Amino acid sequence: MEPFLRRRLAFLSFFWDKIWPAGGEPDPEADPTPAPAPRSPPAPRPQLFRALYDFRARRGGKPSVRRGDGLCALGEDEGGCTFARRLSGQPSAGLVPITCVAEASPEPLSDQPWYFSGVSRTQAQELLLSPPNEPGAFLVRPSESSLGGYSLSVRAQASICHYRVSMAADGSLYLQKGRLFPSLEELLTYYKANWKLIQNPLLRPCMPQNPVQQDAWERPHSEFALRRKLGEGYFGEVWEGLWLGSLPVAVKVIKSADMKLTDLAKEIQTLKGLKHERLIRLHAVCSAGEPVYIVTELMRKGNLQAYLGSPEGRALRLPPLLGFACQVAEGMSYLEERRIVHRDLAARNVLVDDGLACKVADFGLARLLKDDIYSPSSGSKIPVKWTAPEAANYRVFSQKSDVWSFGVLLYEVFTYGQCPYEGMTNHETLQQITRGYRLPRPATCPAEVYVLMLECWRGSPEERPTFAMLREKLHAIHGGFSRVLT
Which of 79, 95, 225, 355 is the most exposed place for a label (fewest CB within 10 A)? Predict the structure, then answer.
């Protein structure tokens, strides 16, 4: 009724504004348009995956996918496959090999240009009505009336419309009952294309009135509660913690006695500029005072070395092992492009999530260790069995010394976390390597992968392959074995 009267009797706009104030938040139970009957039972929240390599379907019922494609699981696993729908390109659904995909890590809301945390309803109206925003500008903000919920605010000419984003029992989100979405991003994508359902187009995210603070990484120690110690290494202790009492995170507590804290600020600046799906994501830092916290995303299955040695890890067959190798090579290739040397690449510094997604951690931190801690003379402190001879003997670290370490990591993967050069001391290991000894081929390791290991262990750093080459070769091997097994 309101739109009809406003359109037909526009000269009474002052009267209509009294009856229907502009910008009012709709009743959470009222839909902008008649909604279809609720589904019964509600659909389960879809699980998102990403393809690890190209897969070309050779028979009906299997969609072809390319590495990096997004997939949405639609059904239960059956016979080593999951029923999924491809989210990019031409719509396609069917059975996809489980070994072909890894669970996708959704981007944090803070990374989305349309999400404004800490913005009230009144502030949202001021932002959307201010230059350079125009009709069609929108933002999503935390709901003020529903804890944990959201509100969508949209500019319509000189007024603002607010819509409550509700959550179903299964965790799905909706504006209108019966139209469920697994995430805010998919909900917005749908209403951008079907904006007439809410009578307001969603054209572009709201532009902030003031420049966004570029460095919001620094947080006070009080925001983090350490819950459970996960481990300890050269760089300090690692704890599972909670950020602001709700977000699970991993907190690395830096041991100030062992670190060159004067260089830490510069290294943290480098970490802030790195973003790749195969690198652990930095959330925040606490560098004002001691101890220093480096806060990252929490990877539930822990480090790769420990996971491979667990009963669950030992049950894995060849394709997922090759998948681990491919993922680490992707992360290291990204660091290589940016001329960043890891210095301590090993399975213990690769973390694993529930979907068997791998992420490289602790890149660059070894450079901050005091010289008397990270040197051959300090005995067991330096990881000699993973370190290239030129780095162990002369402290010459480079991307090529990281390649040597990657070869040892491959050995760890295909021995299910076994320690390399078992039974040898660090001194004996260096002696044997200098004499030309190389680790033998593990029983589960394909011959093609062992050839890559030997290339990583060439005595001359210049003769070792790049991570870009290793990434491409491993993906080709992975794809070949997976096609044979499917």
Answer: 79
Q: How many CB atoms lie within 10 A of CB 355?
A: 16
Tell me which of 237, 271, 297 is where a domain ends.
297
pLDDT at 258: 54
Total residue count of the chain as it appears in this document: 486
For residue 407, which phi and psi values (nearest 5 degrees)? -60, -40
Is 138 a member of any domain?
Answer: no
Tally of domains in the chain:
2
The answer to whether 344 is a known catalytic residue is yes
Is 329 in the same domain as 283? no
> Which residues define the annotated binding site?
252
Res 44: pLDDT: 46
Dihedral, CA of residue 6, residue 7, residue 10 and residue 13, to nearest 10? 20
Which residues carry a binding-site annotation for ATP?
252
Which of 344, 353, 354, 372 is catalytic? The answer is: 344
Instruction: Give the pLDDT score at 43.
Output: 42
- Tell me which residue range forms the domain holding 272: 221-297
Segments of the chain with pLDDT less than 50: 22-45, 211-214, 370-380
Q: Are residues 325 and 385 in the same domain?
A: yes
| CATH at residue 449 | 1.10.510.10
